[in-house]
TrEMBL record:
Coiled coil: none annotated. Pathway: Amino-acid biosynthesis; L-histidine biosynthesis; L-histidine from 5-phospho-alpha-D-ribose 1-diphosphate: step 6/9. It comes from Mycolicibacter algericus. This is Imidazoleglycerol-phosphate dehydratase. InterPro entries: IGPD_sf (IPR038494), ImidazoleglycerolP_deHydtase (IPR000807), ImidazoleglycerP_deHydtase_CS (IPR020565), Ribosomal_Su5_D2-typ_SF (IPR020568). It is an enzyme of class 4 (lyase). The lineage of its organism: Bacteria, Bacillati, Actinomycetota, Actinomycetes, Mycobacteriales.
Amino acid sequence: MTGSRRARITRTTRESDIVVELDLDGTGVVDIDTGVPFYDHMLTALGSHASFDLTVRAKGDIEIEAHHTVEDTAIVLGQALGQALGDKQGIRRFGDAFIPMDETLAHAAVDVSGRPYCVHTGEPDHLVHTTIAGTQAPYHTVINRHVFETLASNARIALHVRVLYGRDPHHITEAQYKAVARALRQAVEPDPRVTGVPSTKGAL
């Protein structure tokens, strides 16, 4: 590994204004404000359980709907993750985690491959129609898949997320975010036995 594994990315459009600061070698210090309370809760879980230091500031057109803010934040978070990974030297590269949350069990697997791909399976059909309301903009769980696809695409990682079983929309969503967090934590960790890029090609 070479250099600091930190990133600061900004993105401004007519729909949102996003700033993400990320330190892969942090201790789980997280400060999130997107204007979408449940999304704040999910990103807090993601940063904390990945042991990343993560700051997110997002202002979007939540008076219309939370979709733009949620999507654009995932774009910038993915870009920050990709930038912070740098040359990817000395990392474990692969990670996976099973996360239970009461009646729910979720699994995530990550390959820091440089080839963006996402597979998302197993969510019960009722999550397409579920809204988790907060004090401000509600979070529509139908966007879960899009968040993970967007994160994977912009970080240039392969990400597989599946729900094995579950009933409560909050638990199903949170277990997935936490599974992704733990898988990422494992994948980006330094491996003392890896001296270069963990690929037979010599590059990721």
